From TrEMBL:
<feature type="coiled-coil region">
    <location>
        <begin position="432"/>
        <end position="459"/>
    </location>
</feature>
<dbReference type="InterPro" id="IPR050505">
    <property type="entry name" value="WDR55/POC1"/>
</dbReference>
<feature type="compositionally biased region" description="Polar residues">
    <location>
        <begin position="338"/>
        <end position="353"/>
    </location>
</feature>
<feature type="repeat" description="WD">
    <location>
        <begin position="56"/>
        <end position="88"/>
    </location>
</feature>
<comment type="similarity">
    <text>Belongs to the WD repeat POC1 family.</text>
</comment>
<dbReference type="InterPro" id="IPR020472">
    <property type="entry name" value="WD40_PAC1"/>
</dbReference>
<protein>
    <recommendedName>
        <fullName>POC1 centriolar protein homolog B</fullName>
    </recommendedName>
</protein>
<feature type="repeat" description="WD">
    <location>
        <begin position="266"/>
        <end position="298"/>
    </location>
</feature>
<feature type="repeat" description="WD">
    <location>
        <begin position="98"/>
        <end position="139"/>
    </location>
</feature>
<keyword id="KW-0175">Coiled coil</keyword>
<feature type="region of interest" description="Disordered">
    <location>
        <begin position="332"/>
        <end position="353"/>
    </location>
</feature>
<feature type="repeat" description="WD">
    <location>
        <begin position="182"/>
        <end position="223"/>
    </location>
</feature>
<dbReference type="GO" id="GO:0005814">
    <property type="term" value="C:centriole"/>
</dbReference>
<feature type="repeat" description="WD">
    <location>
        <begin position="224"/>
        <end position="265"/>
    </location>
</feature>
<dbReference type="InterPro" id="IPR001680">
    <property type="entry name" value="WD40_rpt"/>
</dbReference>
<feature type="region of interest" description="Disordered">
    <location>
        <begin position="372"/>
        <end position="404"/>
    </location>
</feature>
<dbReference type="InterPro" id="IPR015943">
    <property type="entry name" value="WD40/YVTN_repeat-like_dom_sf"/>
</dbReference>
Length: 484
């Protein structure tokens, strides 16, 4: 078992989004982080403090999902504008648009070989696409309400999905059939994913719980109730030993899956936390929330050699994989209550590395054609009238040449304030954040104390009631014996 090193620590605070951060993913190949937002923009952040951040413009509504390809050379985003975009994370901002669904697209995910995409939509369907051919392949249509999330298994043979019909489904990608349905979800299911070995899935939803299922035995392995509001997202650690969850209760929680307990509660966001994700190595993780902030955390609490762990997991996805999460106790369903010794962390460092990165804005991207869900190439409407010459130029090119055109703008922000004054204001805001988090911790401890006092009073009341009943029964027995 891994040894404990130290508590998680807040490393950086990325600022650039103008609305809630809804999704995030790390580049497997480079030190980059992609985030999508309700401001309709895709941001690519460099983990190098001195590098610039890129803002990609193109979607016409909230970005709901983002993911890097396994090689890191592509980024895919889904949006409420009913489209999916494939981006090249470079300065020229090239992208390809899929008219994916007839309703908002809630989730998009690469297969683990990068050859396919699966999309989930409010039109109650899943769709599978070829990445390189940029063609629609097939639909999966047994959900009876909005589909919130869909993910490929590590070996690509299965897809799991969930939605507002209160179910989690497993699909066989070869037969294109639903092979299993989990209905004991307790309400709408907002997020679902496979663990690293592909033997288990976890699901979360509106009933504030997180459940882990063994898909080989169809048994519920673990059931956590650690959040006080709906869980919006979670991420498995590459080792499979930990899981982080993001909730509308403004917290990020870290679960130890081997011991079946809550080990950390992180207070860094003001308002609901919408997304959280581990890096592919597990040494860092990121969270994003309705406060428009992206927080980068250093894991610290585990020091395994993750390259060896990933090799072991690669062996596990071969035929007849040995048990992995099925070794976690308890094996039967249970309600998890956080122990009183769980650690509460209130980060006080906003950014220990650098000032906010300079942002280069990329877009709008001008593409004359897009793919519909039947695989047809159709003209794309809604191009900006101010870019008519560039659009005409792109239409004059043959479709086969693969050339695209975009504009790059430098993002200039003029605050009108002296630098020293702005720095002082920043320090004041940081100190206010510290005070706010301290008050939040004190309020939580006060609530715990009140709960314990209430429990003691209830116990005392029950003891008094039992004593009174026992006394009444004794009096009744004496009266019966005297009359006899």
């Amino acid at each position: 078992m891994a040894s404990v090193l130290e508590d998680p620590s807040l490393e950086r605070n990325f600022k650039g989004h103008k609305d809630a951060v809804t999704c995030a993913d790390f580049n497997p190949a480079n030190k980059q982080l992609a985030t999508g937002s309700a401001d309709r923009n895709l941001m690519i952040w460099s983990l190098n403090p001195k590098s610039k951040a890129l803002r990609f413009v193109g979607h016409n509504d909230v970005i709901t999902s983002v993911q890097f390809s396994p090689c890191g050379d592509l980024v895919v985003t889904a949006s409420k504008d009913k489209t999916v975009r494939l981006w090249k994370p470079r300065f020229n901002g090239e992208s390809t648009v899929f008219k994916a669904h007839m309703a908002p697209v809630r989730c998009v995910s690469f297969s683990h070989n990068g050859q396919k995409l699966v999309t989930a939509s409010d039109d109650k369907s899943l769709k599978v696409w070829s990445v390189h051919r940029q063609r629609f392949l097939y639909s999966l249509n047994q959900h009876t309400n909005w589909v919130r999330c869909a993910k490929f298994s590590p070996d690509g043979r299965l897809i799991t999905s969930c939605g507002d019909d209160n179910t989690v489904r497993l699909w066989d990608t070869t037969s294109q059939q639903c092979i299993n349905t989990f209905t004991d979800c307790g309400g709408s299911v907002t997020f679902v994913d496979f663990n690293a070995s592909g033997t288990c899935i976890a699901s979360t939803g509106s009933n504030n719980t997180l459940k882990i299922w063994d898909i080989r035995t169809n048994k519920l392995l673990q059931h956590y109730q650690v959040h006080s509001a709906g869980i919006n997202c979670f991420s498995f650690h590459p080792s499979g030993n930990y899981l982080i969850s993001a909730s509308s209760d403004s917290t990020v929680k870290i679960l130890d899956l081997l011991e079946g307990r809550l080990i950390y509660t992180l207070h860094g966001h003001k308002g609901p936390v919408q997304t959280v994700t581990f890096s592919r190595q597990g040494d860092i993780f990121a969270s994003g929330g309705s406060d428009s902030q992206v927080l980068l955390w250093k894991t610290n609490f585990d020091k395994l050699n993750y390259k060896e762990v990933l090799k072991e997991h690669h062996r596990r996805v071969n035929p007849e994989p040995p048990p992995h999460l099925s070794d976690i106790f308890p094996r039967s369903p249970h309600l998890h209550t956080a122990p009183s010794s769980s650690i509460q962390i209130s980060p006080t460092v906003a950014d220990t590395q650098s000032a906010d990165p300079h942002i280069v804005e990329v877009g709008p991207v001008l593409f004359p054609y897009m793919q519909d869900h039947h695989g047809n190439t159709v003209p794309r409407g809604g191009a900006h009238s101010g870019n008519g010459q560039a659009l005409a130029r792109s239409r004059a090119q043959p479709e086969e040449d693969g050339q695209t055109y975009s504009r790059t703008y430098a993002l200039e922000e003029h605050s009108g304030l002296p630098n020293g004054f702005s720095t002082t204001l920043g320090h004041i805001v940081q100190q206010l954040d510290v005070l706010t988090q301290t008050v939040a911790v004190l309020e939580q401890r006060l609530s715990l104390t009140e709960d314990k006092l209430r429990e003691c009073l209830d116990n005392q009341a029950s003891i008094v009631v039992q004593a009174q009943r026992a006394e009444e029964q004794a009096v009744e027995r004496e009266s019966q014996s005297s009359s006899a």
